[in-house]
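User: Run a structure prediction on this.
Assistant: Running it now.
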Amino acid sequence: MSQAEHSTITPRMQTLLLLNGVGLFIVGIVFGWTWFFHLLGEIVLWPLPIQIEVDIPGDSRGFRMGHMEAITHGLLLMAFAFTGQFMRLSQKEYTVFFWSALINGWLFTLPAMANAFYGTRGLAFGGGPFKPGLANDIIYLFGWPPVVAVHILFAVVVIGLVRHLRASA
């Protein structure tokens, strides 16, 4: 790639990656509180005089997974917002990087959160060794875009970083 073909990540793209990362992190926090109240069976916020009985259905393993997916992918998007400047990519490649990152972040996280409420895993169509059902199959199908996106994403990242490293040598 010649210098003329090289582009830099746009400030708008960086801001949107950062904003989506923060959004995922906030979703993770809210989901964490939901998990907390699920475990307790009540909303209690000592020292506040609040104690409300709640029955939040779900699977603790699924809550943990959804909570951690949101935090992990939120941090990853925030990191990508800043590491984009260390990649040498064309504008088209930056666009692929951007959309792959967003698909990866949100579509790995939201289905994982749905698993908590449905007691599914979404790892195999028909449930595999886990709980089968329509919810599982829908979650499984929603898992395909991020599975493809994560491979594209990291291929583009490696290409961009290697180009940057070679150019700075």
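The beta strands are 42-44, 51-53.
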